[in-house]
């Protein structure tokens, strides 16, 4: 019996007992489907985290005041003595890995006005280097310059959401926007970033020079600190230098803030690469969990397949005896039952794959949870299903091929 004929006979046998075949496939369907859903959600979450880390700047560090122990109480980030423009300059000049540095002052809930149209947004005062550190391109116009920063110029670079709300007909570049009664010339529009991992619209922002923010818009004030900033963003030349840069920045900041040896830092250096490492570790652990779940599901499904195939061999004993009596080889009998087992598992795998894809899309639409369905998952699922068919179908097939033709023909 050739391979095509064996498949035809197998499909005929499965069609005759369609309900039993479906029940046999059920374990494989559930196993493959659940694995597809879990892997799709895992891949979607991974892509979302990667996008957020990339948006933060893959080679960037952030220095924040606070995060210190005082009197046994750990201060929150941003609650300590503010940083300053002088800290920014010191880090830029003394840490060799730093290629760009920018302090930032952020204030939410300020109202921007254009021709009677109001829009409440976030206003951030910073240095032109900020756009380099955050790898944030100005797609229309330009960024403000260092001379404009030094002169506290009335200029602004706006995010895409602000541009759409205040200038729905376009023409934002060169127009004026008023904040706290201060007119600012829009010199550029930033590329669209979308939502952050915390659900914040990153494009709903207006950037102005830090000096303009402090001198004209009533920005950050801090007693005893000249030119304060809320945090400092630093661009590092290479990703492999992040740990060394973190160490040098920490040492320099401890000296500048007069922290003695053994004292507790009153600032924090946030390394976003750590988030990536943590994500990779979590992904590895999640991968092991998924692999264990997949193996258990497929083993359960395979046992169901083997059980049904053993029943089928018993029911078709006389048929097997008759075929052996008229000249069929043991290999033909074995191949036929093996093909039936593989066809059962492949059919279950295909149905499970389709069900899993639909389930993943339903999860995405109902829960607004990102999913990613990759073609490689389909190949893995089909391969695993075929492997289960061969593994758990071999014993029933071998048992059928070893039947004695005379005993099989006498079987009632």
Describe this structure in words.
The chain has helices spanning 3-16, 18-56, 85-94, 129-133, 146-150, 160-166, 210-215, 242-256, 272-315, 317-325, 330-367, 375-401, 405-410, and strands at residues 60-65, 69-70, 73-74, 83-84, 98-114, 117-126, 138-141, 155-158, 176-179, 182-190, 205-209, 228-229, 231-236, 267-271. It has two domains: 3-53 and 278-410, no CATH class; 81-265, no CATH class. Residues 68-77 have low confidence and may be disordered. The protein has 13 helices and 14 strands. Helix 2 (18-56) packs across helix 11 (330-367), helix 9 (272-315) crosses helix 11 and helix 9 (272-315) runs parallel beside helix 12 (375-401). It starts with a helix and ends with a helix. The protein is α+β, with helices and mostly antiparallel strands and 412 residues long. It is a multi-pass membrane protein. It holds the Pfam family MacB_PCD. Residues 21-251 form the MacB-like periplasmic core domain.
Question: In order across it, which strands form the biggest sheet?
Answer: 5-6-11-8-10-9
- What structural class do helix, strand and pairing data support? alpha+beta
Question: What is the count of helical runs?
Answer: 13
Label the overall shape: elongated
Largest sheet: 6 strands, mixed, barrel
Rg of Cα set: 33 Å
Percentage of residues in helical conformation: 40-55%
First-residue to last-residue Cα separation = 26 Å
Poorly predicted regions are 68-77
Provide the succession of SSEs: HHEEEEHEEHEHEHEEEHEEHEHHHHH
Mean pLDDT: 83
Q: What is the domain total for the residues?
A: 2
DSSP summary, beta strand count: 14
Strand content: 15-25%
